[in-house]
Amino acid sequence: MLNPFEKLQIPPKANYTIDTMLKRLPKIGGTTVRDREIRRLKEYYERIKKYHDFVVQFPRIDELHPFYLEATRIVTDIDKLRICLSVTKKASAISMKILKEYINQIRKSPENEANRIMRQAFGRVSSILRKSSECIDKVIDVAKELKKIQGIDPILPTIVVAGPPNVGKSTLVSKISTAKPEIASYPFTTKEVHVGHVILDDFRIQIIDTPGILDRPEIERNNIERKATNAIRNLNGIIIFMFDSSISSVLSVESQIELFREVKLLKKVIIPVINKIDEKDDEYYKKIVDFLSKEGSKWYEISAEKGIGLDKLKEELFSLIKSSGTNEVSRN
Ligand code: GDP
């Protein structure tokens, strides 16, 4: 399943269309005055049809996968979106109907009436478009934001990589992916999300990192980031939580542990991994290990960069993904 917004053709903003049409008018000619005015209205019709096609193709909100529904909630109020979809559909349908009627009227009227009729039609349609522009533009903005999540397939079994900034999340994604990870982004975050894939015994597994989302304590996250965390919860899979055992760690061990506890609240299978084992600080390392031992968690020690411990980790991850009855592991 692709991002349902991925193929959506997004039209320009409403006022841009009106302004463009105004500029285009003198440039549209014809063999007769009547022919010219009909051409002008036809061009307007084609531009407005783009809004109609856009709302018709807009994914049905009730049918969105929970991951994409949550992502939509990040960007907009769902009820407002429904209203705006309906406003856009009505405005474009009425405008198209008006333009058709006026084109017919031009055909039937004397030649010297053609320009007046065209201007009347142009005015009526532009006024409808202008009145609905706030809503039309809102739907456009929502679609643009949601398109950015390209490449994240909520149905694929997924390994989500969480952990503090700079711990090595994207390094790990690239090290265990079969090909170079793609770049996506979550709505309203500027950080790049890496989306990699592993092909294993005929199965495709998706692996993504979580910059700016699961990398700071809850209290420091803004509303959008909290909602993005919710979206992640709806992905089908397990979470790797990476601890940084090096002296260059951005978060203290205590803060890393706090973050780990929060990620655990997502109620997903969570695999603790201690990274940067090649540069581990003995004191940090001991604190992390003590904590994980007390938790009774089984953990892995790796160096994502140097490739240490990755085979063992991969083996465990893949067998977990395959055996977890909840996911419909999809065939290639
Ligand atoms: P992210 O912010 O969690 O995605 O972290 P990155 O993958 O961008 O890595 C941050 C920095 O840590 C980069 O300079 C990496 O080269 C480095 N790094 C990642 N993994 C390791 C590791 O296992 N050992 C060491 N020494 N450095 C690492």
From TrEMBL:
CDD domains xrefs: NOG
InterPro entries, per database record: G_OBG, GTP-bd, NOG1_N, P-loop_NTPase, Small_GTP-bd
Molecular function GO labels: GTP binding
Keywords: Nucleotide-binding
The organism's place on the tree of life at top rank: Archaea
Keyword Coiled coil attached: no
Domain OBG-type G: 157-322
Keyword Nucleotide-binding attached: yes
This protein's name: OBG-type G domain-containing protein
